[in-house]
């Protein structure tokens, strides 16, 4: 599927960036990027929506990282509409399947791709390099297949369980899944070389921590949907998931990669949805 910017690693590889002068390039882009360009960069990276204006670079995506939750409202909203309309005709499980299919189409299955690649690497025994090679192998392994099936099952059953509140199910999954990616970029540093490197260079700083706090404020509208206490609980759970993945990826491959960010979206989104199921 054509993309404005290619995926970080695994079966899709992000546009190769020049390591020389990255900080200078990022400072220049920080001065030039306006909100519209940031939204465009985030859209091109997190969705398969065709956009005019040519390809987006990974440095642009790094600048747009704090607004990832905004894209979560879009992708979650689209799948929420499909779930809501499908429930008028089909049972909760078939409706949830259609909503998940819509989400995969909108996102290009990018996060799921990263998640299954990360699972393949995690199941591999050996050095950092060997695990990274397993993640970048274009062939799906047993570990990735099992992890993908598990993720789909959790998403399917939790969305079906929340069929009386379809937009709660889809928005919690997507908004907090995207927020976990922001937290992860602040908490960890990337492996080298990795096209996730510009993202962590931009966010793994004091300024990045401030941006992550501002990014958290983008979840305020969720208070209207699930309430204040559940929203605060979801934010805490997001932090826990991001911290867990940071520690695990450091132990497995020596740092963060693009696949780890995809895994953060899937794992945190699933965990947050399960929490809402429990609270409901």
UniProtKB/TrEMBL annotation:
Catalyzed reactions per annotation: alpha-ribazole 5'-phosphate + adenosylcob(III)inamide-GDP = adenosylcob(III)alamin 5'-phosphate + GMP + H(+); alpha-ribazole + adenosylcob(III)inamide-GDP = adenosylcob(III)alamin + GMP + H(+)
GO CC aspect terms: plasma membrane
Protein origin, superkingdom: Archaea
Family listed: Belongs to the CobS family.
Involved pathway(s): Cofactor biosynthesis; adenosylcobalamin biosynthesis; adenosylcobalamin from cob(II)yrinate a,c-diamide: step 7/7
Main location: membrane
Function: Joins adenosylcobinamide-GDP and alpha-ribazole to generate adenosylcobalamin (Ado-cobalamin). Also synthesizes adenosylcobalamin 5'-phosphate from adenosylcobinamide-GDP and alpha-ribazole 5'-phosphate.
One Pfam match: CobS
Name of the protein in question: Adenosylcobinamide-GDP ribazoletransferase
Named cofactor requirement(s): Mg(2+)
MF (Gene Ontology): adenosylcobinamide-GDP ribazoletransferase activity; cobalamin 5'-phosphate synthase activity
Matches recorded under InterPro entries: CobS
Enzyme Commission numbers on file: 2.7.8.26
Membrane topology: Multi-pass membrane protein
UniProt KW keywords: Cell membrane, Cobalamin biosynthesis, Magnesium, Membrane, Transferase, Transmembrane, Transmembrane helix
One GO-annotated biological process of the protein: cobalamin biosynthetic process
Segments passing through the bilayer: 67-87, 140-160, 166-187, 208-226, 260-279
Location within or outside the cell: Cell membrane
């Amino acid at each position: 599927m054509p993309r404005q910017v290619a995926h970080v690693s695994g079966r899709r590889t992000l546009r190769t960036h020049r390591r020389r002068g990255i900080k200078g390039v990022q400072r220049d882009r920080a001065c030039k990027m306006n909100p519209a360009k940031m939204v465009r960069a985030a859209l091109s990276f997190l969705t398969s929506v065709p956009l005019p204006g040519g390809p987006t670079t990974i440095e642009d995506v790094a600048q747009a990282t704090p607004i990832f939750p905004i894209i979560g409202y879009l992708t979650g909203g689209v799948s929420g509409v499909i779930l809501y309309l499908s429930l008028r005709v089909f049972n909760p499980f078939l409706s949830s399947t259609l909503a998940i299919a819509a989400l995969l189409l909108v996102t290009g299955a990018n996060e799921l791709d990263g998640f299954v690649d990360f699972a393949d690497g995690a199941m591999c025994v050996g050095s950092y390099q060997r695990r990274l090679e397993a993640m970048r192998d274009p062939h799906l392994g047993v570990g990735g297949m099992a992890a993908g099936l598990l993720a789909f099952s959790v998403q399917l059953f939790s969305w079906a369980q929340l069929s009386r509140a379809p937009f709660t199910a889809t928005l919690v999954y997507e908004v907090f899944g995207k927020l976990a990616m922001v937290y992860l970029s602040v908490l960890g540093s990337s492996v080298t070389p990795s096209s996730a490197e510009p993202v962590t260079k931009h966010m793994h700083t004091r300024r990045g921590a401030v941006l992550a706090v501002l990014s958290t404020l983008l979840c305020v509208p969720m208070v209207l949907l699930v309430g204040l206490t559940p929203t605060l609980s979801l934010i805490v759970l997001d932090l826990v998931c991001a911290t867990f993945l940071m520690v695990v990826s450091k132990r497995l491959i020596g740092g963060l990669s693009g696949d780890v960010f995809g895994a953060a979206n899937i794992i945190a989104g699933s965990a947050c949805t399960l929490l809402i199921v429990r609270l409901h």
